Amino acid sequence: MDKWIQRFLFYLRAERNASPHTLRAYQHDLSGFLAFVQAKYPGLPVERNQRIVVRDYLSELHGRNIQRATISRAVAVLRAFYKYLMREEAVGQTPFIRLPMPKRPKFLPRFLTEEEMSRLLDLPVERPVPSSLRDGALLELLYSSGLRIQELCRLNIEDIDFWGRRCGCLEKEAASAWFPPARARFGGFTPIWKSGPRPNAARGRFF
Questions:
Q1: Residue of higher predicted confidence among 39 and 103
Q2: What DSSP state is assigned to residue 130?
Q3: For 179-205, what is the mean pLDDT?
Q4: What is the DSSP letter of 205?
């Protein structure tokens, strides 16, 4: 099974363009499942029906008093793994068919009010330091685009469309997605561009 896990992780990285954070999370959960299988079902071939194995593993997770959100994440990872095994014809069917799944707890999201968000976006420009323009642009993009921090930090110079006043991201599902920054703050990008050397400019990074 270890061989299939490594192939699955390579598939996520090479074909699904999974982020390093996603790969680490998948590797962590799959390593836990592999350790369980090797300890309790040594030598079990991957092509055997593993419905009982999966059910036994989920039962053990419940017995550790792990949060339901963590168990739900482990279930999602295993579902994706067995879906990949079916795609590669290593197994005939997924062991999750008609298997009762734990329900994730529902919480009301915590959020900032419109006034609090406006104050947060205004904070960088109130500081008389050279990095205030950059910090303001970073916050503005995070707020308006839904980009992840890693995607934001990887924006290249060519991803900034000064004429069209928008920014592009090529990391979302390997397709180009363009985001117009909120409010009227795109002008803050031009001073950053003209302000001189940037730490990551040699690698083509904008920030």
A1: 39
A2: T
A3: 52
A4: B
Whether the CB-CB separation of 118 and 184 falls below 8 Å is answered with no
Q: Which residues contact 52 (CB under 8 A, 6 or more apart)?
A: none
Domains in the chain, CATH or no CATH each: 2-87 (1.10.150), 114-203 (1.10.443.10)
Q: For the segment 39-89, what is each residue's pLDDT rounded down to a tens digit? A: 888 887 777 767 888 888 888 888 887 888 888 888 889 989 989 998 888
* Residue where the block lists tokens 């001189």: 196
Reading the block at residue 33, the tokens are 């499942």
- Tens of pLDDT along 117-128? 888 888 877 777
- Whether the predicted model's global pTM rises above the 0.70 cut: no
H-run or E-run covering 95 = none
Phi and psi at residue 13, to the nearest 5°: -75, -45
Q: Packing angle between helix 2-14 and helix 68-87, nearest 10 degrees?
A: 90
